[in-house]
Amino acid sequence: MGVSVGSKSPKGSWRSFTRRKQVDSAHKNTKPLLAKELTVSHLIAIGVGSTIGAGVYVLVGTVAKEHSGPALAISFLIAGLAAGLSAFCYAELACRCPSAGSAYHYSYICLGEGVAWLIGWSLILEYTIGSAAVARGITPNIAPLFGGLDNLPFFLSRQHIPGIDIVVDPCAAILVFAVTGLLCLGIKKSTVVQGIVTSVNVCALLFVIVAGGYLGFKSGWVGYELPTGYFPFGVDGMLAGSATVFFAYVGFDAVASTAEEVKNPQRDLPLGIGASLFLCCGMYMLVSFVVVGLVPYYAIDPDTPISSAFAEHGMQWAAYIINAGASTALCSALMGGILPQPRILMAMARDGLVPPFLADINKHTQIPVKSTIITGLAAAVLAFSMEVSQLAGMVSVGTLLAFTMVAISVLILRYIPPNEVPVPPSLQDSVVEINVEYEEENISTSEDTKPLDVKGDFPIDYPLISKHLTIGNYINESNRRRVVGWTIAIICLGAFVLTYAASCLTFLSSVRYTLCGVGGTLLVSGFAFLTCIDQDDARHRFGHSGGFTCPFVPLLPTACILINSYLLVNLGAETWMRVSVWLAIGLLIYVFYGRTHSSLKDAIYVPISQEAET
Fold first, then answer.
1. 519 to each of 7, 51, 308, 523, how far by Cα in Å?
2. Which domains, ranges and CATH numbers included, belong to the chain?
3. Which pLDDT tens digit goes with each residue over 109-142?
4. What is the pTM for the complete model shown?
5. CB atoms within 10 A of CB 454
6. Which secondary-structure segment (H or E) carries 587?
Protein backbone atom coordinates (compact mmCIF):
# COMPACT_ATOMS: atom_id res chain seq x y z
CA MET A 1 0.00 0.00 0.00
CA GLY A 2 1.88 3.09 -1.13
CA VAL A 3 5.09 3.61 0.77
CA SER A 4 6.19 3.82 4.36
CA VAL A 5 5.45 6.85 6.48
CA GLY A 6 7.69 9.71 5.61
CA SER A 7 9.21 8.13 2.50
CA LYS A 8 8.68 9.01 -1.12
CA SER A 9 7.27 6.71 -3.79
CA PRO A 10 10.33 5.02 -5.31
CA LYS A 11 10.75 5.65 -9.01
CA GLY A 12 11.01 2.58 -11.21
CA SER A 13 9.69 0.34 -8.43
CA TRP A 14 6.79 -2.07 -8.35
CA ARG A 15 5.47 -0.01 -5.45
CA SER A 16 4.01 2.44 -7.96
CA PHE A 17 1.48 -0.25 -8.82
CA THR A 18 0.25 -0.39 -5.22
CA ARG A 19 0.13 3.29 -4.25
CA ARG A 20 -3.38 4.38 -3.37
CA LYS A 21 -5.08 7.74 -3.47
CA GLN A 22 -7.14 9.26 -0.70
CA VAL A 23 -10.88 8.83 -0.54
CA ASP A 24 -12.96 12.01 -0.74
CA SER A 25 -14.10 13.08 2.71
CA ALA A 26 -17.50 14.51 3.47
CA HIS A 27 -15.87 16.99 5.88
CA LYS A 28 -13.69 18.67 3.26
CA ASN A 29 -15.03 21.72 1.48
CA THR A 30 -14.05 20.78 -2.03
CA LYS A 31 -15.90 22.65 -4.72
CA PRO A 32 -17.32 20.22 -7.33
CA LEU A 33 -16.34 20.89 -10.91
CA LEU A 34 -19.15 18.91 -12.51
CA ALA A 35 -22.72 20.21 -12.29
CA LYS A 36 -24.79 18.53 -9.59
CA GLU A 37 -28.03 18.23 -11.54
CA LEU A 38 -29.18 14.61 -11.31
CA THR A 39 -31.96 13.14 -9.16
CA VAL A 40 -33.38 9.63 -8.80
CA SER A 41 -35.55 9.93 -11.91
CA HIS A 42 -32.54 10.95 -14.02
CA LEU A 43 -30.49 8.04 -12.67
CA ILE A 44 -33.27 5.56 -13.44
CA ALA A 45 -33.45 6.90 -17.00
CA ILE A 46 -29.67 6.44 -17.38
CA GLY A 47 -29.73 2.97 -15.81
CA VAL A 48 -32.71 1.59 -17.74
CA GLY A 49 -31.65 3.25 -20.99
CA SER A 50 -28.12 1.88 -20.74
CA THR A 51 -29.27 -1.63 -19.79
CA ILE A 52 -32.26 -2.39 -22.03
CA GLY A 53 -30.71 -2.33 -25.47
CA ALA A 54 -31.98 -4.06 -28.59
CA GLY A 55 -30.52 -7.33 -27.26
CA VAL A 56 -33.79 -8.21 -25.54
CA TYR A 57 -35.52 -8.10 -28.94
CA VAL A 58 -33.18 -10.84 -30.22
CA LEU A 59 -31.76 -12.51 -27.12
CA VAL A 60 -35.07 -14.05 -26.01
CA GLY A 61 -35.28 -16.11 -29.19
CA THR A 62 -31.71 -17.40 -29.21
CA VAL A 63 -31.59 -18.35 -25.53
CA ALA A 64 -35.04 -19.93 -25.50
CA LYS A 65 -34.30 -22.04 -28.58
CA GLU A 66 -30.80 -23.18 -27.58
CA HIS A 67 -30.73 -23.23 -23.76
CA SER A 68 -33.74 -22.48 -21.61
CA GLY A 69 -36.93 -23.32 -23.49
CA PRO A 70 -40.08 -22.29 -21.58
CA ALA A 71 -37.91 -21.64 -18.49
CA LEU A 72 -36.49 -18.49 -20.10
CA ALA A 73 -38.09 -16.21 -17.50
CA ILE A 74 -36.35 -18.18 -14.73
CA SER A 75 -33.03 -17.75 -16.56
CA PHE A 76 -33.57 -13.99 -16.58
CA LEU A 77 -34.47 -14.06 -12.88
CA ILE A 78 -31.30 -15.94 -11.91
CA ALA A 79 -29.16 -13.64 -14.05
CA GLY A 80 -30.86 -10.63 -12.47
CA LEU A 81 -30.11 -11.91 -8.99
CA ALA A 82 -26.46 -12.48 -9.96
CA ALA A 83 -26.24 -8.95 -11.37
CA GLY A 84 -27.85 -7.69 -8.17
CA LEU A 85 -24.82 -8.91 -6.20
CA SER A 86 -22.60 -6.51 -8.13
CA ALA A 87 -25.24 -3.80 -7.85
CA PHE A 88 -25.13 -4.02 -4.03
CA CYS A 89 -21.34 -3.61 -4.10
CA TYR A 90 -21.54 -0.68 -6.52
CA ALA A 91 -24.21 1.00 -4.38
CA GLU A 92 -22.06 1.03 -1.23
CA LEU A 93 -18.91 2.24 -2.97
CA ALA A 94 -20.81 4.89 -4.94
CA CYS A 95 -22.18 6.26 -1.63
CA ARG A 96 -18.80 6.25 0.12
CA CYS A 97 -16.78 7.53 -2.86
CA PRO A 98 -19.17 9.71 -4.91
CA SER A 99 -16.68 10.90 -7.51
CA ALA A 100 -16.41 10.35 -11.25
CA GLY A 101 -14.62 7.24 -12.41
CA SER A 102 -16.81 4.42 -11.11
CA ALA A 103 -14.87 1.13 -10.76
CA TYR A 104 -11.59 2.85 -11.71
CA HIS A 105 -12.00 5.31 -8.83
CA TYR A 106 -12.90 2.61 -6.30
CA SER A 107 -9.97 0.40 -7.37
CA TYR A 108 -7.51 3.29 -7.05
CA ILE A 109 -8.64 3.94 -3.47
CA CYS A 110 -8.81 0.32 -2.28
CA LEU A 111 -6.45 -1.73 -4.47
CA GLY A 112 -3.85 0.60 -5.92
CA GLU A 113 -2.74 2.44 -9.01
CA GLY A 114 -1.80 -0.60 -11.10
CA VAL A 115 -5.17 -2.32 -10.72
CA ALA A 116 -6.96 1.00 -11.23
CA TRP A 117 -5.13 1.55 -14.50
CA LEU A 118 -6.04 -1.98 -15.62
CA ILE A 119 -9.72 -1.34 -14.88
CA GLY A 120 -9.74 2.12 -16.44
CA TRP A 121 -7.99 0.88 -19.58
CA SER A 122 -10.40 -2.08 -19.84
CA LEU A 123 -13.43 0.18 -19.42
CA ILE A 124 -12.16 2.44 -22.22
CA LEU A 125 -12.14 -0.61 -24.49
CA GLU A 126 -15.56 -1.71 -23.26
CA TYR A 127 -17.33 1.58 -23.84
CA THR A 128 -15.64 2.34 -27.18
CA ILE A 129 -16.35 -1.05 -28.78
CA GLY A 130 -19.74 -1.31 -27.09
CA SER A 131 -20.84 2.08 -28.42
CA ALA A 132 -19.60 1.26 -31.92
CA ALA A 133 -21.38 -2.13 -31.90
CA VAL A 134 -24.64 -0.52 -30.77
CA ALA A 135 -24.37 2.15 -33.47
CA ARG A 136 -23.77 -0.48 -36.17
CA GLY A 137 -26.94 -2.25 -35.06
CA ILE A 138 -29.21 0.76 -35.54
CA THR A 139 -29.21 0.72 -39.36
CA PRO A 140 -30.81 -2.75 -39.76
CA ASN A 141 -33.47 -1.83 -37.17
CA ILE A 142 -34.55 1.45 -38.78
CA ALA A 143 -34.45 -0.03 -42.30
CA PRO A 144 -37.92 -1.71 -42.02
CA LEU A 145 -39.39 1.70 -41.18
CA PHE A 146 -38.22 2.85 -44.65
CA GLY A 147 -39.34 -0.33 -46.39
CA GLY A 148 -36.05 -2.25 -46.23
CA LEU A 149 -32.30 -1.70 -46.49
CA ASP A 150 -32.53 -0.98 -50.24
CA ASN A 151 -34.92 1.93 -49.65
CA LEU A 152 -32.73 3.80 -47.19
CA PRO A 153 -31.45 7.22 -48.33
CA PHE A 154 -27.97 7.08 -49.83
CA PHE A 155 -26.37 8.99 -46.97
CA LEU A 156 -27.77 6.46 -44.46
CA SER A 157 -27.32 3.16 -46.31
CA ARG A 158 -24.30 0.93 -45.92
CA GLN A 159 -21.80 1.01 -48.76
CA HIS A 160 -19.20 -1.56 -49.77
CA ILE A 161 -15.78 -0.20 -50.69
CA PRO A 162 -14.19 -2.82 -52.98
CA GLY A 163 -10.61 -1.56 -52.90
CA ILE A 164 -10.17 -2.16 -49.17
CA ASP A 165 -13.08 -4.61 -48.83
CA ILE A 166 -14.93 -2.95 -45.98
CA VAL A 167 -18.58 -2.01 -45.47
CA VAL A 168 -18.97 1.52 -44.16
CA ASP A 169 -22.02 2.58 -42.18
CA PRO A 170 -22.59 6.37 -42.41
CA CYS A 171 -25.85 6.14 -40.45
CA ALA A 172 -23.98 4.73 -37.44
CA ALA A 173 -21.35 7.48 -37.57
CA ILE A 174 -24.00 10.21 -37.89
CA LEU A 175 -25.87 8.90 -34.87
CA VAL A 176 -22.68 8.75 -32.79
CA PHE A 177 -21.87 12.36 -33.67
CA ALA A 178 -25.44 13.42 -32.85
CA VAL A 179 -25.31 11.70 -29.44
CA THR A 180 -21.87 13.20 -28.75
CA GLY A 181 -23.17 16.67 -29.52
CA LEU A 182 -26.14 16.11 -27.25
CA LEU A 183 -23.90 15.00 -24.39
CA CYS A 184 -21.81 18.15 -24.84
CA LEU A 185 -24.86 20.31 -24.07
CA GLY A 186 -24.88 19.28 -20.42
CA ILE A 187 -25.73 16.32 -18.23
CA LYS A 188 -29.29 17.39 -17.42
CA LYS A 189 -30.34 18.10 -21.02
CA SER A 190 -28.86 14.86 -22.32
CA THR A 191 -30.44 12.85 -19.50
CA VAL A 192 -33.88 14.35 -20.20
CA VAL A 193 -33.57 13.32 -23.85
CA GLN A 194 -32.41 9.87 -22.83
CA GLY A 195 -35.41 9.59 -20.53
CA ILE A 196 -37.76 10.42 -23.41
CA VAL A 197 -36.11 7.89 -25.74
CA THR A 198 -36.12 5.25 -23.00
CA SER A 199 -39.81 5.90 -22.37
CA VAL A 200 -40.59 5.08 -26.01
CA ASN A 201 -38.66 1.82 -25.67
CA VAL A 202 -40.45 0.94 -22.43
CA CYS A 203 -43.81 1.68 -24.06
CA ALA A 204 -42.95 -0.72 -26.90
CA LEU A 205 -42.07 -3.42 -24.37
CA LEU A 206 -45.28 -2.74 -22.46
CA PHE A 207 -47.17 -3.19 -25.73
CA VAL A 208 -45.47 -6.55 -26.20
CA ILE A 209 -46.40 -7.58 -22.65
CA VAL A 210 -50.04 -6.41 -22.74
CA ALA A 211 -50.91 -7.39 -26.32
CA GLY A 212 -48.91 -10.62 -26.04
CA GLY A 213 -50.65 -11.45 -22.77
CA TYR A 214 -54.04 -10.96 -24.41
CA LEU A 215 -53.06 -13.24 -27.30
CA GLY A 216 -51.67 -15.80 -24.86
CA PHE A 217 -54.89 -16.03 -22.84
CA LYS A 218 -56.88 -16.11 -26.07
CA SER A 219 -54.84 -18.96 -27.58
CA GLY A 220 -54.26 -20.89 -24.36
CA TRP A 221 -50.48 -20.31 -24.03
CA VAL A 222 -49.53 -23.02 -26.50
CA GLY A 223 -45.83 -22.56 -25.76
CA TYR A 224 -46.25 -23.97 -22.26
CA GLU A 225 -48.35 -27.02 -23.24
CA LEU A 226 -45.44 -29.17 -24.40
CA PRO A 227 -44.66 -32.81 -23.58
CA THR A 228 -41.05 -31.87 -22.78
CA GLY A 229 -42.16 -29.76 -19.81
CA TYR A 230 -40.70 -26.46 -18.67
CA PHE A 231 -37.06 -27.63 -18.72
CA PRO A 232 -36.45 -29.35 -22.08
CA PHE A 233 -32.70 -28.80 -21.77
CA GLY A 234 -32.63 -29.63 -18.06
CA VAL A 235 -31.52 -27.41 -15.21
CA ASP A 236 -28.05 -27.17 -16.80
CA GLY A 237 -29.58 -25.62 -19.91
CA MET A 238 -31.49 -23.11 -17.83
CA LEU A 239 -28.30 -22.12 -15.97
CA ALA A 240 -26.42 -21.85 -19.27
CA GLY A 241 -29.17 -19.52 -20.44
CA SER A 242 -28.69 -17.45 -17.28
CA ALA A 243 -24.98 -17.06 -18.04
CA THR A 244 -25.86 -15.88 -21.56
CA VAL A 245 -28.50 -13.33 -20.56
CA PHE A 246 -26.38 -12.02 -17.66
CA PHE A 247 -24.83 -9.48 -20.02
CA ALA A 248 -28.28 -8.07 -20.75
CA TYR A 249 -28.09 -6.50 -17.27
CA VAL A 250 -24.82 -4.69 -17.88
CA GLY A 251 -25.45 -0.96 -17.85
CA PHE A 252 -26.34 -0.07 -14.27
CA ASP A 253 -22.65 0.74 -13.74
CA ALA A 254 -23.27 3.80 -15.93
CA VAL A 255 -25.27 5.19 -13.00
CA ALA A 256 -22.24 4.96 -10.72
CA SER A 257 -20.09 6.85 -13.24
CA THR A 258 -22.30 9.95 -12.77
CA ALA A 259 -21.87 9.95 -8.96
CA GLU A 260 -20.16 13.36 -8.95
CA GLU A 261 -23.17 14.93 -10.72
CA VAL A 262 -25.85 13.65 -8.33
CA LYS A 263 -27.45 16.15 -5.95
CA ASN A 264 -27.78 13.70 -3.05
CA PRO A 265 -25.51 10.73 -3.84
CA GLN A 266 -25.94 8.97 -0.47
CA ARG A 267 -29.69 8.66 -1.04
CA ASP A 268 -30.14 8.77 -4.82
CA LEU A 269 -27.36 6.50 -6.10
CA PRO A 270 -28.53 3.30 -4.34
CA LEU A 271 -32.13 4.05 -5.35
CA GLY A 272 -31.13 4.71 -8.96
CA ILE A 273 -29.03 1.55 -9.24
CA GLY A 274 -31.57 -0.67 -7.48
CA ALA A 275 -34.66 0.70 -9.22
CA SER A 276 -33.14 0.50 -12.71
CA LEU A 277 -31.99 -3.08 -12.17
CA PHE A 278 -35.39 -4.08 -10.72
CA LEU A 279 -37.30 -2.52 -13.63
CA CYS A 280 -35.04 -4.16 -16.21
CA CYS A 281 -35.37 -7.59 -14.56
CA GLY A 282 -39.16 -7.25 -14.45
CA MET A 283 -39.34 -6.20 -18.10
CA TYR A 284 -37.08 -9.02 -19.24
CA MET A 285 -39.04 -11.66 -17.34
CA LEU A 286 -42.46 -10.47 -18.55
CA VAL A 287 -41.37 -10.19 -22.20
CA SER A 288 -39.72 -13.62 -22.15
CA PHE A 289 -42.76 -15.16 -20.42
CA VAL A 290 -45.04 -13.81 -23.15
CA VAL A 291 -42.86 -14.72 -26.13
CA VAL A 292 -42.20 -18.35 -25.20
CA GLY A 293 -45.90 -18.71 -24.33
CA LEU A 294 -47.12 -17.54 -27.72
CA VAL A 295 -44.91 -19.86 -29.79
CA PRO A 296 -43.23 -23.19 -28.85
CA TYR A 297 -39.58 -22.58 -28.07
CA TYR A 298 -38.36 -24.79 -30.95
CA ALA A 299 -40.42 -22.77 -33.48
CA ILE A 300 -39.19 -19.30 -32.41
CA ASP A 301 -37.35 -17.31 -35.07
CA PRO A 302 -34.00 -16.49 -33.39
CA ASP A 303 -33.52 -13.34 -35.52
CA THR A 304 -36.93 -11.73 -34.99
CA PRO A 305 -38.49 -13.65 -32.09
CA ILE A 306 -41.03 -11.05 -30.96
CA SER A 307 -42.21 -9.94 -34.41
CA SER A 308 -42.56 -13.53 -35.65
CA ALA A 309 -44.47 -14.52 -32.50
CA PHE A 310 -47.04 -11.78 -33.12
CA ALA A 311 -47.17 -12.66 -36.84
CA GLU A 312 -48.13 -16.23 -35.92
CA HIS A 313 -51.29 -14.77 -34.40
CA GLY A 314 -52.09 -12.47 -37.32
CA MET A 315 -50.56 -9.25 -35.96
CA GLN A 316 -47.95 -8.52 -38.63
CA TRP A 317 -48.42 -4.78 -38.09
CA ALA A 318 -46.91 -5.15 -34.60
CA ALA A 319 -43.50 -5.41 -36.27
CA TYR A 320 -43.50 -1.63 -36.81
CA ILE A 321 -43.96 -0.96 -33.09
CA ILE A 322 -41.34 -3.55 -32.20
CA ASN A 323 -38.82 -2.13 -34.69
CA ALA A 324 -39.45 1.38 -33.33
CA GLY A 325 -38.83 0.07 -29.82
CA ALA A 326 -35.64 -1.69 -30.89
CA SER A 327 -34.37 1.47 -32.61
CA THR A 328 -35.03 3.69 -29.60
CA ALA A 329 -33.50 1.04 -27.34
CA LEU A 330 -30.30 1.17 -29.38
CA CYS A 331 -30.23 4.97 -29.36
CA SER A 332 -30.69 5.04 -25.58
CA ALA A 333 -28.01 2.36 -25.14
CA LEU A 334 -25.68 4.40 -27.36
CA MET A 335 -26.13 7.40 -25.09
CA GLY A 336 -25.54 5.22 -22.05
CA GLY A 337 -22.40 3.78 -23.64
CA ILE A 338 -20.79 7.11 -24.50
CA LEU A 339 -21.79 8.90 -21.26
CA PRO A 340 -19.47 7.11 -18.75
CA GLN A 341 -16.24 7.04 -20.77
CA PRO A 342 -15.45 10.80 -20.72
CA ARG A 343 -15.88 10.76 -16.94
CA ILE A 344 -13.47 7.85 -16.58
CA LEU A 345 -10.94 9.63 -18.80
CA MET A 346 -11.45 12.79 -16.73
CA ALA A 347 -10.80 10.89 -13.49
CA MET A 348 -7.66 9.29 -14.94
CA ALA A 349 -6.45 12.69 -16.15
CA ARG A 350 -7.02 14.20 -12.70
CA ASP A 351 -4.75 11.49 -11.31
CA GLY A 352 -2.08 12.22 -13.93
CA LEU A 353 -2.30 8.81 -15.66
CA VAL A 354 -3.40 10.29 -19.01
CA PRO A 355 -2.78 13.76 -20.53
CA PRO A 356 -4.22 16.53 -18.33
CA PHE A 357 -6.30 18.22 -21.06
CA LEU A 358 -8.77 15.32 -20.78
CA ALA A 359 -9.75 16.64 -17.34
CA ASP A 360 -10.74 20.09 -18.62
CA ILE A 361 -14.30 21.07 -17.65
CA ASN A 362 -16.34 23.43 -19.80
CA LYS A 363 -17.36 26.48 -17.73
CA HIS A 364 -20.83 26.74 -19.27
CA THR A 365 -21.98 23.11 -19.49
CA GLN A 366 -19.79 21.86 -16.62
CA ILE A 367 -18.94 18.59 -18.35
CA PRO A 368 -15.63 17.26 -19.78
CA VAL A 369 -16.25 18.40 -23.36
CA LYS A 370 -12.80 17.47 -24.71
CA SER A 371 -13.03 13.94 -23.34
CA THR A 372 -16.57 13.62 -24.70
CA ILE A 373 -15.53 14.72 -28.21
CA ILE A 374 -12.55 12.35 -28.28
CA THR A 375 -14.75 9.49 -27.06
CA GLY A 376 -17.39 10.20 -29.69
CA LEU A 377 -14.80 10.55 -32.45
CA ALA A 378 -13.22 7.18 -31.62
CA ALA A 379 -16.61 5.43 -31.47
CA ALA A 380 -17.75 7.08 -34.72
CA VAL A 381 -14.63 5.97 -36.62
CA LEU A 382 -15.08 2.39 -35.42
CA ALA A 383 -18.80 2.37 -36.16
CA PHE A 384 -18.27 3.83 -39.63
CA SER A 385 -15.41 1.64 -40.84
CA MET A 386 -15.40 -1.66 -38.94
CA GLU A 387 -17.69 -4.60 -38.34
CA VAL A 388 -17.15 -4.78 -34.61
CA SER A 389 -19.55 -7.64 -33.86
CA GLN A 390 -16.61 -10.06 -33.71
CA LEU A 391 -15.03 -7.89 -31.01
CA ALA A 392 -18.18 -7.82 -28.88
CA GLY A 393 -16.74 -10.43 -26.49
CA MET A 394 -14.03 -7.95 -25.50
CA VAL A 395 -16.73 -5.71 -24.03
CA SER A 396 -17.58 -8.40 -21.50
CA VAL A 397 -14.01 -8.57 -20.18
CA GLY A 398 -14.01 -4.95 -19.03
CA THR A 399 -17.42 -5.33 -17.41
CA LEU A 400 -16.59 -8.51 -15.51
CA LEU A 401 -13.18 -7.26 -14.39
CA ALA A 402 -14.82 -4.10 -13.06
CA PHE A 403 -17.51 -6.11 -11.25
CA THR A 404 -14.86 -8.35 -9.69
CA MET A 405 -12.66 -5.48 -8.49
CA VAL A 406 -15.66 -3.68 -7.01
CA ALA A 407 -16.53 -6.79 -4.96
CA ILE A 408 -12.91 -7.09 -3.78
CA SER A 409 -12.94 -3.39 -2.89
CA VAL A 410 -15.95 -3.93 -0.63
CA LEU A 411 -14.07 -6.67 1.28
CA ILE A 412 -11.05 -4.40 1.63
CA LEU A 413 -13.17 -1.47 2.77
CA ARG A 414 -14.88 -3.57 5.44
CA TYR A 415 -11.92 -5.51 6.83
CA ILE A 416 -8.75 -3.54 6.04
CA PRO A 417 -9.71 0.00 4.96
CA PRO A 418 -6.73 2.13 3.91
CA ASN A 419 -5.05 3.57 7.03
CA GLU A 420 -2.54 5.86 5.29
CA VAL A 421 -3.09 8.93 3.14
CA PRO A 422 -0.78 10.62 0.63
CA VAL A 423 0.44 14.15 1.33
CA PRO A 424 2.56 16.46 -0.87
CA PRO A 425 6.35 15.98 -0.70
CA SER A 426 6.68 19.61 0.48
CA LEU A 427 5.47 18.39 3.89
CA GLN A 428 8.44 16.04 4.33
CA ASP A 429 9.87 18.09 7.22
CA SER A 430 6.53 18.25 9.01
CA VAL A 431 6.15 14.48 8.73
CA VAL A 432 9.60 13.92 10.25
CA GLU A 433 8.86 16.29 13.17
CA ILE A 434 5.53 14.61 13.90
CA ASN A 435 7.13 11.15 13.80
CA VAL A 436 9.75 12.29 16.36
CA GLU A 437 7.04 13.70 18.63
CA TYR A 438 5.05 10.46 18.44
CA GLU A 439 8.14 8.40 19.25
CA GLU A 440 8.91 10.58 22.32
CA GLU A 441 5.32 10.30 23.52
CA ASN A 442 5.41 6.53 23.14
CA ILE A 443 8.67 6.30 25.12
CA SER A 444 7.38 8.46 27.98
CA THR A 445 4.10 6.56 28.05
CA SER A 446 5.87 3.21 28.27
CA GLU A 447 8.04 4.43 31.19
CA ASP A 448 5.06 5.69 33.17
CA THR A 449 3.00 2.57 32.66
CA LYS A 450 3.01 0.13 35.58
CA PRO A 451 2.92 -3.63 35.09
CA LEU A 452 -0.54 -5.09 34.76
CA ASP A 453 -1.81 -7.00 37.79
CA VAL A 454 -4.52 -9.25 36.43
CA LYS A 455 -5.81 -10.32 39.85
CA GLY A 456 -5.98 -6.80 41.21
CA ASP A 457 -7.14 -4.86 38.18
CA PHE A 458 -9.76 -7.16 36.67
CA PRO A 459 -12.59 -9.30 37.99
CA ILE A 460 -11.95 -12.99 37.59
CA ASP A 461 -14.65 -13.42 34.93
CA TYR A 462 -13.27 -10.67 32.64
CA PRO A 463 -12.37 -12.17 29.23
CA LEU A 464 -8.67 -11.78 28.54
CA ILE A 465 -9.19 -12.79 24.87
CA SER A 466 -11.63 -10.57 23.04
CA LYS A 467 -14.40 -12.03 20.92
CA HIS A 468 -12.82 -11.32 17.57
CA LEU A 469 -9.61 -13.16 18.48
CA THR A 470 -11.20 -16.53 19.16
CA ILE A 471 -9.91 -18.14 15.95
CA GLY A 472 -6.34 -17.97 17.15
CA ASN A 473 -3.86 -16.02 19.24
CA TYR A 474 -1.70 -15.29 16.21
CA ILE A 475 -4.16 -12.65 15.00
CA ASN A 476 -3.40 -9.29 16.58
CA GLU A 477 -3.41 -5.71 15.42
CA SER A 478 0.18 -5.79 14.19
CA ASN A 479 -0.35 -8.57 11.66
CA ARG A 480 -4.13 -8.51 11.25
CA ARG A 481 -4.08 -6.39 8.10
CA ARG A 482 -1.48 -8.59 6.46
CA VAL A 483 -3.33 -11.82 7.30
CA VAL A 484 -6.69 -10.47 6.11
CA GLY A 485 -5.11 -9.17 2.91
CA TRP A 486 -3.72 -12.61 2.14
CA THR A 487 -7.09 -14.14 2.98
CA ILE A 488 -8.85 -11.97 0.40
CA ALA A 489 -6.19 -12.94 -2.14
CA ILE A 490 -6.76 -16.64 -1.30
CA ILE A 491 -10.50 -16.21 -1.89
CA CYS A 492 -9.81 -14.76 -5.35
CA LEU A 493 -7.32 -17.52 -6.17
CA GLY A 494 -9.73 -20.21 -4.99
CA ALA A 495 -12.57 -18.78 -7.09
CA PHE A 496 -10.36 -18.73 -10.19
CA VAL A 497 -9.00 -22.27 -9.71
CA LEU A 498 -12.48 -23.67 -9.00
CA THR A 499 -14.18 -22.04 -11.98
CA TYR A 500 -11.31 -22.73 -14.38
CA ALA A 501 -11.14 -26.41 -13.44
CA ALA A 502 -14.91 -26.78 -13.64
CA SER A 503 -15.01 -25.15 -17.08
CA CYS A 504 -11.95 -26.79 -18.69
CA LEU A 505 -13.19 -30.07 -20.18
CA THR A 506 -9.78 -30.90 -21.68
CA PHE A 507 -8.37 -31.90 -18.29
CA LEU A 508 -8.51 -35.49 -17.12
CA SER A 509 -11.36 -36.13 -14.70
CA SER A 510 -8.97 -36.79 -11.82
CA VAL A 511 -7.12 -33.51 -12.48
CA ARG A 512 -10.37 -31.55 -12.74
CA TYR A 513 -11.76 -32.96 -9.52
CA THR A 514 -8.48 -32.35 -7.71
CA LEU A 515 -8.28 -28.74 -8.86
CA CYS A 516 -11.94 -28.20 -8.02
CA GLY A 517 -11.27 -29.55 -4.54
CA VAL A 518 -8.24 -27.32 -4.07
CA GLY A 519 -10.05 -24.23 -5.35
CA GLY A 520 -13.15 -24.96 -3.30
CA THR A 521 -11.07 -25.50 -0.16
CA LEU A 522 -9.25 -22.19 -0.61
CA LEU A 523 -12.49 -20.35 -1.29
CA VAL A 524 -14.41 -21.81 1.64
CA SER A 525 -11.47 -21.47 4.04
CA GLY A 526 -10.98 -17.79 3.19
CA PHE A 527 -14.70 -17.12 3.47
CA ALA A 528 -14.90 -18.91 6.83
CA PHE A 529 -11.94 -16.93 8.16
CA LEU A 530 -13.51 -13.58 7.23
CA THR A 531 -16.80 -14.70 8.75
CA CYS A 532 -15.12 -15.48 12.09
CA ILE A 533 -13.37 -12.14 12.54
CA ASP A 534 -14.85 -8.71 13.16
CA GLN A 535 -14.90 -6.04 10.52
CA ASP A 536 -12.63 -3.05 11.08
CA ASP A 537 -14.27 -0.19 12.99
CA ALA A 538 -12.39 2.29 10.79
CA ARG A 539 -14.86 1.50 8.00
CA HIS A 540 -17.41 3.78 9.66
CA ARG A 541 -15.08 6.77 9.14
CA PHE A 542 -14.07 5.83 5.59
CA GLY A 543 -15.27 8.32 2.98
CA HIS A 544 -18.84 9.59 3.11
CA SER A 545 -20.84 7.88 5.83
CA GLY A 546 -24.59 7.59 6.26
CA GLY A 547 -25.35 5.98 2.90
CA PHE A 548 -26.16 2.47 1.74
CA THR A 549 -24.15 -0.45 3.12
CA CYS A 550 -23.85 -3.76 1.32
CA PRO A 551 -25.58 -6.56 3.29
CA PHE A 552 -24.31 -10.09 3.97
CA VAL A 553 -20.60 -9.30 3.91
CA PRO A 554 -18.46 -11.35 3.25
CA LEU A 555 -20.97 -13.76 1.64
CA LEU A 556 -22.31 -11.42 -1.01
CA PRO A 557 -18.96 -10.07 -2.35
CA THR A 558 -17.49 -13.61 -2.30
CA ALA A 559 -20.42 -14.93 -4.35
CA CYS A 560 -19.98 -12.00 -6.73
CA ILE A 561 -16.28 -12.84 -7.20
CA LEU A 562 -17.14 -16.50 -7.87
CA ILE A 563 -19.84 -15.74 -10.46
CA ASN A 564 -17.71 -13.18 -12.30
CA SER A 565 -14.72 -15.56 -12.33
CA TYR A 566 -16.88 -18.26 -13.91
CA LEU A 567 -18.07 -15.90 -16.63
CA LEU A 568 -14.54 -14.60 -17.26
CA VAL A 569 -12.98 -18.04 -17.79
CA ASN A 570 -15.80 -18.97 -20.19
CA LEU A 571 -15.32 -16.05 -22.59
CA GLY A 572 -13.09 -18.08 -24.92
CA ALA A 573 -9.43 -18.11 -25.92
CA GLU A 574 -9.91 -15.79 -28.92
CA THR A 575 -11.42 -13.06 -26.78
CA TRP A 576 -8.65 -13.31 -24.21
CA MET A 577 -5.96 -13.12 -26.91
CA ARG A 578 -7.44 -9.89 -28.25
CA VAL A 579 -7.86 -8.44 -24.77
CA SER A 580 -4.28 -9.41 -23.89
CA VAL A 581 -2.99 -7.31 -26.79
CA TRP A 582 -5.03 -4.32 -25.58
CA LEU A 583 -3.87 -4.77 -21.99
CA ALA A 584 -0.23 -5.09 -23.11
CA ILE A 585 -0.53 -1.77 -24.95
CA GLY A 586 -2.05 -0.25 -21.84
CA LEU A 587 0.78 -1.57 -19.67
CA LEU A 588 3.37 0.07 -21.92
CA ILE A 589 1.52 3.38 -21.77
CA TYR A 590 1.33 3.17 -17.99
CA VAL A 591 5.01 2.28 -17.55
CA PHE A 592 6.32 5.02 -19.85
CA TYR A 593 3.74 7.75 -19.14
CA GLY A 594 1.17 7.11 -16.42
CA ARG A 595 3.61 5.92 -13.75
CA THR A 596 5.96 8.87 -14.20
CA HIS A 597 3.21 11.51 -14.46
CA SER A 598 1.03 10.19 -11.64
CA SER A 599 -0.08 12.75 -9.07
CA LEU A 600 1.19 10.30 -6.42
CA LYS A 601 4.66 9.97 -7.96
CA ASP A 602 6.43 11.79 -5.11
CA ALA A 603 3.69 11.51 -2.50
CA ILE A 604 4.52 10.81 1.15
CA TYR A 605 2.22 8.52 3.11
CA VAL A 606 1.23 9.28 6.69
CA PRO A 607 -1.26 7.57 9.03
CA ILE A 608 -4.78 8.94 8.85
CA SER A 609 -4.50 9.93 12.52
CA GLN A 610 -1.64 12.30 11.64
CA GLU A 611 -3.20 13.80 8.50
CA ALA A 612 -4.74 16.89 10.10
CA GLU A 613 -1.62 17.62 12.16
CA THR A 614 0.59 17.25 9.09
1. 38, 33, 46, 6
2. 35-417 (1.20.1740.10)
3. 999 999 999 999 999 998 999 899 899 888 888 8
4. 0.89
5. 9
6. helix 573-589
